UniProtKB/TrEMBL annotation:
<dbReference type="InterPro" id="IPR015943">
    <property type="entry name" value="WD40/YVTN_repeat-like_dom_sf"/>
</dbReference>
<keyword id="KW-0833">Ubl conjugation pathway</keyword>
<dbReference type="Pfam" id="PF12451">
    <property type="entry name" value="VPS11_C"/>
</dbReference>
<dbReference type="InterPro" id="IPR001841">
    <property type="entry name" value="Znf_RING"/>
</dbReference>
<dbReference type="GO" id="GO:0061630">
    <property type="term" value="F:ubiquitin protein ligase activity"/>
</dbReference>
<comment type="similarity">
    <text>Belongs to the VPS11 family.</text>
</comment>
<keyword id="KW-0472">Membrane</keyword>
<dbReference type="GO" id="GO:0006904">
    <property type="term" value="P:vesicle docking involved in exocytosis"/>
</dbReference>
<keyword id="KW-0479">Metal-binding</keyword>
<dbReference type="InterPro" id="IPR024763">
    <property type="entry name" value="VPS11_C"/>
</dbReference>
<feature type="coiled-coil region">
    <location>
        <begin position="891"/>
        <end position="925"/>
    </location>
</feature>
<keyword id="KW-0808">Transferase</keyword>
<dbReference type="InterPro" id="IPR057307">
    <property type="entry name" value="PEP5_VPS11_N"/>
</dbReference>
<dbReference type="Pfam" id="PF17122">
    <property type="entry name" value="zf-C3H2C3"/>
</dbReference>
<dbReference type="GO" id="GO:0030674">
    <property type="term" value="F:protein-macromolecule adaptor activity"/>
</dbReference>
<dbReference type="InterPro" id="IPR036322">
    <property type="entry name" value="WD40_repeat_dom_sf"/>
</dbReference>
<dbReference type="GO" id="GO:0007033">
    <property type="term" value="P:vacuole organization"/>
</dbReference>
Length: 1038
C-alpha cells in the first residue's frame, strides 16, 4: 500500500509558542545550552540546561517551577524521560567515565543530584562511546541502552523501588555500527534494535549469547531517530528506503510506500498517526514549496496510517530538536521543540472539524470511512449520506444517489426525495426504478406509510415488473412490515380482518392490476390483503373472468360470507353458470351448506369443471335433483349424493334475499323455490317465510301458464292449484298448541295470493282435491335450539334473540331447558319477563315468575336482594305484593341462617371451654407429698411400692427399677415415660406436628376457599382449618 500524497488535510492544528524569556538571562526552552527535554503533561515541560541543571517549566505561565543540579560537574545530561507520570529518568555522560542512569520521583524532586531514587552506572569498556538510543519499560523493571560502538546493554531490576539492578550486554555489533534505535514492547519481553545496516529483534529474558532472536531486515537498517514503538498496536515502526514499515514481535511486517526522502525523525502519535520530520532541500518533491531558505527548513508531516492520507503538512524555518509527548495519553497534544527556541503545539482537531474539512472537498466516501472508523453517531453518518446523495444527484448519478438516500432514512425528508425522482423520472424508466428501490428501503426499515406503499405498487405495475410484485406479495405482511423470509403463515390471522389499519390504497391497486392485465396477481392481492371475502369474489369474477372459480371460492366461505356474496353476485353467476349457481343457492337456503376446500385453478375450462350441462334446462326441483344425483353417482361422489337428505345445520336465511337475482329466469326460479318449499315442508320453518315462498311460486306458476309452451301449461296449472290449496290448509289448520301455534300463524297472510288469482282470473275459493285431503297431514312444529358446548355467551345471546320474537312462551321453554347449565340466564330472564304486563301474563303471571325465577335466584344466591328489587321495580309489570313477598321470604331465610350459625358458634364455644379445662387439669402441678402410696401396686411388676418410685401426671406409679430411661435432658437428668400412656403420647405428638404443618400451609387454605366458590360454604372451610390447628402459633410439650 502506498501513501496518497494528493489527499492532504489539516486534521491537526499547529500553534507555535515562543519563549517569552528569549534573549534574557533567564531563558527557558530557548536556552542555547539545552541538551535534553521531556513533557510531564500538556502544561509542564522538563529541560536540561548548562549540562547538569534540570528545570521544571510551566508552558502556560512561562515560569520555572523547580530547578536543581542532577549530576556533578563534568557530566552532561543527554536524555530525559517521564515514566508513568511518576518518575523522572535522567542520563548523564562524561568521556572516560561510565554513564549514569538516575531516577527521581516527580512529586519529591530534590534540591541537588545526591537525593535520587535509583542510580545505575552503565559500563561500556573504556567508556568512550556515546549513548545513541535508550528504551525504558513502563514499569521501570528494565531498560536497554545502545551505544555508538554497536553495543547494547540490558539492565533489569526493581528500579522504581531502588532494590538493585543487574546489567548485561546482549549484543555487540561486529562492525561496530552505531545503534540507531531501541524499542521495548509492552511487556518488555522483546526489544527491537537497529543499526545503519540491519534491524533485529532481541529477547530480554534468558540468555541470548549476544545473538538476536530474529533478524527482521538483513539488507538495510535505519537512521538515527527514525524508529519507534507504536504502543497501541505493539508494533515497531521505522522508515527506510522510502517505506514506513511496521514489525510485530513474531516477525510479521507490513509497509506503506511514502514518496519522501531525507527523513530526520519518525514519531508515533497513536496507532492511526505517524509524524515525520523531513529535511527540505533544493530537490524537487511532491511536497516542495519555493523558498530561498528551503535547504535549512524542516517539513513536518503527519500521516494517517489507516486512510493513507496526509493529515498535516507545514514548514518549520528551523530544525526540530526533539518531539515531546505525554508517555501514556495519545489524546494529549504533542510538542515540537525547534532550534530557534519555539515550541510548536500540535493538537488533533475534533472529528466534527475533520469531517467538515473532508466534506468541503466533496470527498464524501472518505468522510464516511472516517466516520465509521471513529464510530460517530448514526444520525451524523446519515447526514453525510444525505449530503453525498445530494451531490450525486446534482451530478446526474441518480442510481448512486438513491443508494445514499437509502442509508439516511432518519434525516432525509422522504417527500422531497420522492418529489425529486417523480419529476425527473416522468418519462425515464430507470429513474422510476431507482425511486422504487428507495421506497423498498422505506418498507424494509419500517418507515413507509400507506401512501409510500401505494406509490411503490403503482410503480411496479406501471413498469410491468411482475417479479417485484410477487416479491411484495411474498414478503410484505398483513401487519405492514417487511419479512426477509417468505410469508406463509399470516393468511389465517383473523386479527387482520378486525383491524382498521389500511396498508395501501387497495381499490386503486386492484384497478391498476386489472388495467395492466395482471389477473393472477390481482387475485393474490385480494386473497392476502382483502378484509372482505366479497372483494375476492369480485376480483375472480370481474378481473380474472373466471366464474367457476368465483363460484367455487364462494363455496369455501363461512355461511355468512357466502350469503353476502350470493346476495351481490348471484344474478351475474346465474347468467354465466345457471345450474351450478342455482345448486349452490338451494344448498345455502335449505340449511345444508358446508364449506368446501378451495384451490385456485386458472387453466381448466368451465365445461370441464361443471357438473351440469350448460344447455340443460330444468322445469322442477325433482328433475333437477334426479340429474344431480345421477351426475354425482357417475363421478363416484356418493357423499354429495346424500346431501339431499341431510338435516339443516343452521337456520336457513330467508329466500327472498335473492329473489331479484332470478328476474328473467323463471325456470331457475321455479327450481329454487320448490327446493326451499320442500325444505320448509320437511323441517317446518317460519310460516311467514313459507307463505312468501308459496305466494311467489304461485305467481310464477300462473305466469308460466300464459308464457310457457302449451305442452307444459296444464302442469303449471296443477302446480298452482296445489300451492293455493297448501296455503289455505296452512291458514285453516287447527292449532294443536295454543301457546305457540297461534303466535306463529297470526303473522301469516295470503291476501296477496287473492290479488294474484284475481289478476290471473283464477277462482280463489277452489275446493280441496280429495287426493290432497287424503295425503295432507297436520304436523306440529317443534323448536330445536342448537347448543354449543362450553359456550355460555351463546346461550345468553340465544335467549335474547328469542325475546325479540315476541313469544314469551318460547323464551320460557328455552329458559327452563338451559337455566341449570347457565345460571346467568336467570338475570336475563327476570329482566325480560318483567319488562311488560303482557309478557308476565303470557308465562302464567306472578306465581310462575316467583316459583320459576325469583325463588331459584334467592336459593342459589345468583343476585343480591338489591339487584332483584331494582329489576322488579324497573317496570309496572309486577305488583308491590310480589316485591313484599320476596323481601319477607329473603329475610326469613337470612334469620334461619343466622340462628343456625349462632347455635353452631355456641356449640364450638362450649366444646372449646371443655378442652381448656381438661388441659388445665392435666398441666396443673401436683404436690408430691400428697401422693397416696398405701395399698398401691407398681403398674409394671404389680408388687407393693418401694422407694425409689416414679410418679407420672397421668396417675400411674412405677418402681424406678421397672422403668427404662428414654433419653437425657440438657442437665443430664434421667427422663422416663409412662409405658401405659406412651402410645397416646406419641399419637398426641404426631397430631401436634400435623397442626404445625397445617398452620404453615396457607396456600392450601386459600385453594380450599377458592374451590368453595361463591355458592359454597366458606365458613365451613374456615372452621375446619381452625380445627386442624391452622391458627396455632404456640404448642404444648407433653
Amino acid at each position: 500500500m502506498s501513501l496518497n500524497l494528493k489527499l492532504q488535510f489539516q486534521f491537526f492544528e499547529n500553534v507555535p509558542i515562543r519563549d517569552p524569556q528569549l534573549g534574557t538571562a533567564s531563558q527557558l526552552y530557548s536556552d542555547p545550552t539545552l541538551s535534553a527535554a521531556a513533557l510531564i503533561n500538556s502544561k509542564t515541560l522538563v529541560i536540561a540546561v548548562n549540562s547538569v541543571t534540570i528545570k521544571v517549566n510551566s508552558i502556560d505561565n512561562s515560569s520555572v517551577l523547580k530547578q536543581f543540579n542532577a549530576f556533578d560537574d563534568g557530566y552532561r545530561i543527554t536524555y530525559l524521560d517521564i515514566i508513568n507520570n511518576s518518575y523522572l529518568v535522567t542520563v548523564g555522560e562524561q568521556t572516560g567515565l561510565p554513564a549514569i542512569f538516575k531516577v527521581f520521583k516527580l512529586d519529591k524532586l530534590p534540591k541537588n543530584g545526591n537525593s535520587f531514587l535509583t542510580k545505575v552506572e552503565l559500563k561500556n569498556g573504556d567508556n568512550t562511546a556515546l549513548i545513541s538510543a535508550i528504551s525504558i519499560s513502563p514499569d521501570l523493571s528494565c531498560f536497554t541502552v545502545g551505544f555508538t560502538n554497536g553495543k547494547i546493554i540490558l539492565v533489569r531490576g526493581d528500579l522504581g523501588r531502588d532494590r538493585g539492578a543487574k546489567q548485561r550486554m546482549i549484543y555487540q555489533d561486529k562492525d561496530n555500527e552505531p545503534i540507531t534505535s531501541l524499542a521495548l514492547d509492552k511487556d518488555a519481553s522483546c526489544c527491537f534494535a537497529s543499526t545503519t545496516s540491519k534491524i533485529y529483534l532481541f529477547a530480554t529474558t534468558g540468555r541470548n549469547n549476544g545473538n538476536p532472536e530474529l533478524i527482521l531486515n538483513n539488507s538495510s537498517g535505519i537512521n538515527l531517530n527514525c524508529g519507534c514503538m507504536v504502543k497501541e498496536s505493539n508494533e515497531f515502526a521505522c522508515f527506510h528506503d522510502g517505506n514506513i514499515e511496521f514489525y510485530k514481535t513474531n516477525g510479521e511486517k507490513r509497509s506503506i510506500a511514502v514518496d519522501l526522502k531525507s527523513i530526520k525523525r519518525l514519531f508515533s502519535i497513536s496507532k492511526d498517526y505517524i509524524l515525520l520530520v523531513v529535511e527540505e532541500s533544493n530537490k524537487e518533491s511532491n511536497l516542495r514549496i519555493d523558498d530561498d531558505n528551503s535547504s535549512s527548513m524542516h517539513r513536518v508531516i503527519i500521516i494517517d496510517v489507516q486512510n493513507k492520507v496526509v493529515a498535516l503538512n507545514f514548514i518549520m524555518s528551523n530544525s526540530v530538536v526533539d518531539v515531546l509527548s505525554s508517555s501514556d495519553d495519545s489524546s494529549e497534544p504533542i510538542y515540537l521543540l525547534a532550534s530557534n527556541g519555539v515550541i510548536h503545539r500540535i493538537i488533533e482537531k475534533s472529528i466534527e472539524d475533520k469531517l467538515s474539512i473532508v466534506i468541503q472537498k466533496q470527498l464524501f466516501q472518505f468522510a464516511l470511512d472516517i466516520g465509521s472508523k471513529q464510530k460517530i453517531s448514526e444520525r451524523k453518518m446519515q447526514e453525510i449520506h444525505k449530503q453525498f446523495g445530494d451531490y450525486l444527484y446534482k451530478k446526474g448519478q441518480k442510481a448512486e444517489a438513491v443508494e445514499q438516500y437509502i442509508q439516511c432514512l432518519d434525516v432525509v425528508e422522504t417527500s422531497e426525495v420522492i418529489a425529486m425522482f417523480s419529476i425527473d423520472g416522468a418519462a425515464d424508466a430507470d429513474v422510476i426504478k431507482n425511486l422504487s428501490e428507495y421506497i423498498w428501503s422505506l418498507i424494509k426499515k419500517g418507515k413507509a406509510n400507506e401512501d409510500h406503499v401505494t406509490l411503490l405498487l403503482i410503480i411496479l405495475i406501471k413498469l410491468k415488473d411482475t417479479e417485484q410484485v410477487n416479491d411484495f406479495l411474498k414478503h410484505f405482511t398483513r401487519e405492514g412490515k417487511y419479512s426477509e423470509n417468505e410469508i406463509t403463515t399470516d393468511l389465517d390471522d383473523e386479527a387482520y380482518f378486525y383491524s382498521n389499519e389500511e396498508l395501501f390504497d387497495f381499490k386503486l391497486i386492484l384497478r391498476l392490476l386489472d388495467e395492466s392485465n395482471f389477473k393472477n396477481e390481482a387475485y393474490l392481492f385480494a386473497k392476502k390483503f382483502s378484509k372482505d371475502a366479497v372483494t375476492i369474489v369480485e376480483v375472480i369474477l370481474d378481473i380474472v373472468k373466471d366464474p367457476w372459480s368465483a363460484l367455487k371460492y364462494i363455496k369455501s366461505l363461512p355461511i355468512d360470507d357466502t350469503l353476502r356474496a350470493l346476495a351481490i353476485y348471484s344474478k351475474d353467476l346465474l347468467d354465466l353458470l345457471p345450474n351450478d349457481t342455482n345448486s349452490l343457492l338451494i344448498t345455502v337456503f335449505t340449511g345444508k351448506y358446508t364449506p368446501e376446500r378451495y384451490e385456485y385453478e386458472k387453466s381448466r375450462k368451465e365445461v370441464e369443471r361443471s357438473v351440469f350441462d350448460p344447455k340443460t334446462i330444468f322445469y322442477s326441483y325433482t328433475s333437477f335433483m334426479d340429474y344431480m344425483n345421477k351426475s354425482l353417482s357417475i363421478t363416484q361422489d356418493s357423499s354429495k349424493a346424500k346431501d339431499n337428505d341431510q338435516t339443516p345445520t343452521y337456520h336457513p336465511p330467508k329466500p327472498s334475499i335473492v329473489f331479484t337475482s332470478f328476474i328473467g329466469k323463471p325456470f331457475l326460479f321455479v327450481v329454487f323455490l320448490e327446493a326451499c318449499l320442500d325444505s320448509y315442508r320437511r323441517y317446518e320453518g317460519s310460516m311467514e317465510d313459507k307463505q312468501i315462498i308459496l305466494t311467489t311460486l304461485y305467481d310464477i306458476y300462473l305466469t308460466l301458464v300464459h308464457d310457457d309452451i302449451p305442452e307444459r301449461q296444464d302442469s303449471w296449472k296443477v302446480k298452482a292449484k296445489h300451492i293455493l290449496i297448501e296455503s289455505k290448509k296452512m291458514l285453516s289448520s287447527p292449532n294443536t298448541d295454543s301457546s305457540s301455534s297461534n303466535s306463529r300463524s297470526n303473522n301469516v297472510d295470503n291476501s296477496l295470493m287473492m290479488l294474484i288469482s284475481h289478476m290471473n282470473k283464477v277462482d280463489m275459493f277452489l275446493s280441496y282435491d280429495e287426493e290432497l285431503d287424503a295425503t295432507s297431514k297436520d304436523e306440529e312444529t317443534s323448536i330445536e335450539y342448537p347448543l354449543m358446548k362450553d359456550e355460555s355467551a351463546y346461550l345468553i345471546n340465544s335467549f335474547r334473540c328469542l325475546t325479540l320474537t315476541e313469544d314469551p312462551n318460547n323464551s320460557m321453554r328455552f329458559f327452563e331447558k338451559y337455566c341449570e347449565k347457565e345460571p346467568n340466564l336467570y338475570r336475563a330472564a327476570l329482566t325480560y319477563f318483567v319488562s311488560s304486563k303482557h309478557i308476565t301474563n303470557a308465562i302464567g303471571g306472578e306465581e310462575v315468575l316467583k316459583s320459576k325465577i325469583i325463588t331459584p335466584i334467592l336459593k342459589r344466591r345468583l343476585l343480591s336482594m338489591i339487584d332483584i328489587v331494582h329489576v322488579l321495580s324497573s317496570s309496572n309489570a309486577v305488583t308491590f305484593g310480589l316485591i313484599q313477598d320476596t323481601l319477607i321470604t329473603h329475610t326469613e331465610v337470612l334469620e334461619q341462617e343466622i340462628h343456625k350459625s349462632q347455635k353452631l358458634a355456641e356449640s364450638y364455644e362450649s366444646e372449646l371451654k371443655d378442652k381448656e379445662e381438661k388441659i388445665k387439669s392435666i398441666l396443673q402441678k401436683t404436690d408430691g407429698t400428697t401422693i397416696q402410696l398405701k395399698g398401691k401396686l407398681c403398674q409394671m411388676c404389680e408388687t407393693p411400692l418401694e422407694l425409689p418410685i416414679v410418679y407420672f401426671k397421668c396417675g400411674h406409679i412405677y418402681h424406678q427399677r421397672c422403668l427404662n430411661e428414654e433419653d437425657y435432658a440438657t442437665q443430664s437428668a434421667q427422663v422416663y415415660k409412662c409405658p401405659k400412656c406412651l402410645v397416646e403420647f406419641e399419637r398426641a405428638h404426631k397430631l401436634q406436628e400435623a397442626q404445625l404443618e397445617t398452620s404453615q400451609k396457607f396456600d392450601m387454605f386459600q385453594m380450599a376457599l377458592d374451590d368453595a366458590g361463591d355458592n359454597g360454604d366458606k365458613f365451613k372451610v374456615i372452621t375446619e382449618f381452625i380445627g386442624r390447628g391452622g391458627l396455632e402459633f404456640q404448642h404444648l410439650n407433653l
